[in-house]
Structure formats: C-alpha cells, structure tokens
Amino acid sequence: MACLSRWLQAHDEMAQAERFTAWQDYLATLDREQAHQVIRQSLTLADDFARASEPVLGRYTTGVASYRAEAACRACFRYDAELLTRSRLEYHLGLLGTEILNRVYRDRFAATEQKLVIVPLCLRTPPEGMECQAKQTSLGARCQGCHPACRSSYPF
Description:
- The chain is mainly alpha-helical.
- It has a domain at about 115-155.
- It has five helices and two strands; from the N terminus they run H-H-H-H-H-E-E.
- A two-stranded antiparallel sheet has the order 1-2.
- Strand 1 and strand 2 form a beta hairpin.
- Helix 1 (about 1-10) runs antiparallel to helix 2 (about 15-30).
- About 5% of the residues are buried.
C-alpha cells in the first residue's frame, strides 16, 4: 500500500493517495490475519459491485469504450484527460458516489434560496435543428429554457 500511495502521489492523485495512506494506517493497527481478512472482504465487495453494477448501471456507460478511443488522440490537453484511463467499473463507482452525494446534500440544496447548477456542454446540447439560445455570463452559459426538450432546463 505504501508503494501504491507513492505511485498515486507521483501521478498527482492526492485524494486517492491519502485514502490508501489512511487504510494503511488502519491496517497497521490490526494483526496480520485481521488485516488480510479486511483486504479479502474489500476485494470480495469490489467483485460483487462489479457484477451487480453492470446490469443496473451499464446502460449509462455503453459509450465509454468508443469515447475513450475517439477522444484519446486529442486528450492530452483536456481537463478530463485522466478520465480516459478509467474503466466502465470506475465510471459505475463514480455514478454511485454522485448518487450518494446527491442524496446527502439534497435537502440542503432544496432549502437554498439561490441555486447555481453547472452543466457540461454535453447536457446543454439543444434538440436537432435548433441553436442553443443560452446567454453567456461570467460563470458560463445560462439556459434560457427556450425549448422543453433542452436537457439543461430541468426545474429544481
């Protein structure tokens, strides 16, 4: 784990490196057999999630392989370049994590008087044959709700 943590740090994956360091510190408090049992259980849980996530979340990630292949040639200067190395399983974990955070913060978000939702361009794509009517602001494009099919004009 120490080697993995150093490798993650070297690749500027600080959050993941910190998590592995925390796990390493925790496992160091256990005897050898207990530590091995925790690792075995973690690997079993990962395998179970991989099996269970595909039929449920797989429909949301069908384009991952083609996206990675298509975007790889122009990815080195993109903000999301590191995502091109992620597997479908990692995307599934990201979807699960996002859902958990959405549920945790939903009440707080709903209670907020003013809301700002930043939506990536792929969700702001207007219906075919229409041009996006979003107005540019200092924070990016602001949806004008010009068409009910626009995926960025969902009410909150």
